[in-house]
Amino acid sequence: MRILMIILQICGGLTFIPWFMIAGLSFMVFDRPSAIRKFLPWVFVFLIFSYPFVVGGSYWWAWSSVINGDYKIGCLWSCVPIIVFILGYIIITQRTDLLNRYKKS
Fold first, then answer.
1. What does the chain look like in DSSP terms, one character per residue?
2. What pLDDT, on a 0 to 100 scale, did the predictor assign at position 65?
3. CB 99 within 8 A of CB 83
4. Distance (Å, rounded) from C-alpha 55 to C-alpha 49?
5. Which residues contact 23 (CB under 8 A, 6 or more apart)?
6. 44 and 23 in contact (C-beta within 8 Å)?
7. How does pLDDT run across 58-98, given as a tens digit for each residue?
8. How many whole angstroms separate alpha carbon 95 and alpha carbon 88?
């Protein structure tokens, strides 16, 4: 189970590669001057930049569970960053109309 948890954590760590690109581009929400006074662009940027804390916290809980002897809960905590990344990807692609372009062709 430890090997499975380490593999899951490596896969979760690889999600930082696209996260860096998304985090750098997330400030484009403020291109319009009126967007700074709105609430949702700030929430979007906050959610994007809170992802590393989600990863760190879930890995901390995973290894804490392993130290206590509960390997299954540790593996479940290791899956959290991957699940959050997949959900975030689906939400962003649906929001930006990326998938609709491929559905038409």
1. -HHHHHHHHHHHHHTHHHHHHHHHHGGGGG-SGGGGGSSHHHHHHHHHHTHHHHHHHHHHHHHHHHHTT-HHHHHHHHHHHHHHHHHHHHHHHHHTTHHHHHHH-
2. 94
3. no
4. 11
5. 48, 49, 51
6. no
7. 999 999 999 999 999 999 999 999 999 999 888 877 776 65
8. 10
Domain ranges of the chain: 2-104
C-alpha to C-alpha distance for 78 and 42, rounded to whole angstroms: 28
CA 60 to chain centre: 16
Contact (Cβ atoms closer than 8 angstroms) between residue 85 and residue 58: no
Instruction: Report the candidate in 8, 88, 10 with the shortest Cα–Cα distance to residue 51.
Output: 88
The residue whose two tokens read 């372009």 is: 101
